[in-house]
């Protein structure tokens, strides 16, 4: 099994490589969209190009910030540096929202102006090329994000998808205007649709990050799996008080496990350590489990309360004080 430091190094390297490739493509697409948008007279394509340039800022945040949140736990941050990744997600989401609002505002202002000439077909070809390239980049980035359990890489993947989607109404508006020249303001309406898509993507990035910063429940699915693993362990009589919270792309868990009350402390500790290592090994995104050991007695049992006969039996077994 690789050492934690090696895993952090590999994960950080993947994040930086994927982000750097995305940044290079964003520069190319931004220049392409803005240049052709100006030449072909498409406000929507220019707005889409500005959106691509905004991706560069988030790419820079990831490239610089990943070295901080990928650092292992230390005395100053005993739970690790995962919250730096969460803050980066908030920044990416806010940047997306601001870009979307700016594009929408410009589009609304121009709706009151004299309708501009219909954009040239060159804008359509540029938009289609952007859709294909950014969709491919989204799929690759999302695949890598799932592979290394990176929330910030997943957020950036959605940033790429929002850029691809924002080019769709641009392409539709240009081709529709070419077929029906009498239709006015299609380009501005397409820019407003771009705004809606960008704001939706921003919300989908910010909301999970907000929940993480407020220590909302990490993962109900992981908690259920933890119960299942405890039930399969013959030395664990019961598990309860399970809690989970997210930190960056990882999960922290804590729980109470009940064992034979006549077992030695040493054996009970060995069971908890074995169970902890099993959970961390089998659940890739879990980085730590804090386990509180309790005796399997009527006073401690919550999931399977004692019957009246069991309570009387345990009372008889208690030594007189």
The structural class is mainly alpha
Under CATH, the homologous superfamily of the largest domain reads Cation efflux protein transmembrane domain
Span between N and C termini?
Answer: 51 Å
Uncertain segments of ≥5 residues (pLDDT<50)?
Answer: 1-5
Major β-sheet strand ordering:
1-2-3
CATH architecture of the largest domain: Up-down Bundle
What's the pLDDT, averaged over the residues?
81
Rg result: 27 Å
* Count of runs of 4 or more consecutive helical residues: 9
Count of the domains: 2
User: Would you state the CATH class of the largest domain?
Assistant: Mainly Alpha
Transmembrane segments: 15-36, 87-105, 117-137
Domain Cation efflux protein transmembrane: 20-213
Pfam family, one: Cation_efflux
Subcellular location: Membrane
Note down, in words, how this protein is organized.
Belongs to the cation diffusion facilitator (CDF) transporter (TC 2.A.4) family. FieF subfamily. The protein is mostly helical and 321 residues long. It has 2 domains: 210 residues, Up-down Bundle (Alpha-lytic protease prodomain-like); 98 residues, 2-Layer Sandwich (Alpha-Beta Plaits), CATH 3.30.70.1350. 68% of the residues lie in helices and 9% in strands. The protein is built from 9 helices and 3 strands; from the N terminus they run H-H-H-H-H-H-H-E-E-H-E-H. The chain has a 3-stranded mixed sheet with strand order 1-2-3. Helix 1 runs antiparallel to helix 2, helix 2 packs antiparallel against helix 5 and helix 4 runs antiparallel to helix 5. The protein is elongated and about 95 Å long. The two termini are 51 Å apart.
